[in-house]
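The records we work with from here on pair a chain with its fold. Here is one such record, which you should read through line by line:
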Amino acid sequence: MKTSPSTLKIMRNVLLIAFLIVAFGYSWQVTELDLVRMVRDLPKGEKIILSFLTPELFTHEYENTVIEMDFPVPCGAAPEAEIPESGPRLVPSLPCVELRDKFILEGYELAPGMEVLIRWKFPNEGELNVVRVQTDADGHFSTEIEARPISASVDGVASKIQAETFIPVGGLVPSQTLKDVFEAIMVTIFMALLSTTVATFVAAPLSFLAASNITRRGCLGSGIYYISRSIFNILRSYDPLVMATVFGFWLSFGPFPGFLALTVVTIASLGKLFSEAVENIDEGPIEALQATGANRLQTVIYGVIPQIVPDFVSFIIYHWDINVRISTIIGFVGGGGIGYYLSEQINGFNYNRAGTAVWAIVIVVWAMDFLSAEVRKRLT
């Protein structure tokens, strides 16, 4: 019995729908989507988001005071601290705790209505900020703290719990965070500028070798064309993060490995864009020059370059914009710039400072996008 076309169409559609259901079901499974947990942990996310939305731009001039106390983790690993009965002091609900246990820390007789930064001070002189709290009208605060493994005592020496208070004594001034973010974002912008510039000088001449209408003539020309194309394709297949990690292990992490990673990736990307621009030129001027007896070099200089300059400039500016964004991500693997600063602040739970960096990235990316769009508009 012959199957009708409509039946085949229905069967094909049913199989397609079944495939899509299986594909999306498997995608849901491997992604480990948990909407219930997302709703349950919303208060935790709300706190982080609010911190990101309140960047540290300006601050008062402060006088800061620090009070501290030894706190053994786990119990018996170091001597317990003696709690004073009067004056500014920290009072934990327990004299010591085991790893991962939580306890209540209270502060008494501190400056009223002041911000207090609670942090761990480790035996190796390292620090970990825990939380910022506000004292009430009586100079008291109360907060819950978890004894993380990093806070464990070392060789009988306990980590310290510190409370640093900040009392404003002057007018508003640019915060240290704003200064640090400005310095880091400048590193990112100019690292992207330098990498784009160096990549342009390398990719521009190589792009002519990878353009079929320029070099793909004869065995030698075809060989050069395929080798050039292969180099661009191989370099483009490596993610900037991979390149930054490789250069970081090679040269130690910092802005220089980040610059090298950006440059290598940009050479490949611009080389491909440039070569395609060369391949799409109008052949009329080239044929006219060849008819007058112009050699290959003269044809390129007078027939090709005038046509490709607007496209080249547009690609260069657009790639500078892209490299600013990529360099932010590269910073997370130690490539320097604003990405590295952002990574440090997130790892240190300084979400207000991280928020300042995020806002700086947003402003710079917006400005770069606007600038590149305006330049491309004027060139086309």
Notes: The two ends are 62 Å apart (CA to CA). DSSP finds twelve helices and seven strands in the chain.
